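Hello forum,

I keep getting stuck at the same step: I have a sequence, I want structure tokens, and every attempt I make locally crashes halfway through. Rather than fight my setup again tonight, could one of you with a working pipeline run this one for me? It's a single chain of 156 residues.
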Amino acid sequence: MDQVLSHPAVLNLRQEASEGSTAFAVTLWESIRYIVKRPHLLAPQCADDLKNPILQAMLAAQLLVPRWSPLRLEVPKHSRAWLQDWINAQHAKLSWAQRLEYNLQALRERSEIIRELDKSEGQESRARTKKKGELPSGRGKGKGWEDLTSSIEWTK
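Reply #2:
Ran it on my machine without issues. Output:
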């Protein structure tokens, strides 16, 4: 998780959190919870189109990996439970007042966080989907996924 937390995009997100550390924790933890619950996220054709800082950081830390045929992003199976446990451990460290503040803020912001993550999948990814439930495949122009994630083992 240190790689995710020290990623430049996440550091910028932390600085932009206007309401302090609770706002950042809500954004980070609830984003990860949502990502972990999903079997996959549709990947944009071009890696440059991935704008969400948490997705960028998780990809760089190999907590989110690209899969080909069809093109998508997945959390590796061994990381799912670990990420959930990490979030629960961080939440348990909060004082009673901090937990209350976190839970209230999470209730207020969860729908916006989910909307942003869904939006990060991109309209282009959805447009490539031919049928409901069918995933897009193929590679796009621009900075490729292989260039961005050259150290990741590619599997189907």
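The chain has one domain: 2-127+135-148. If your local run keeps crashing, start a new thread with the error log.
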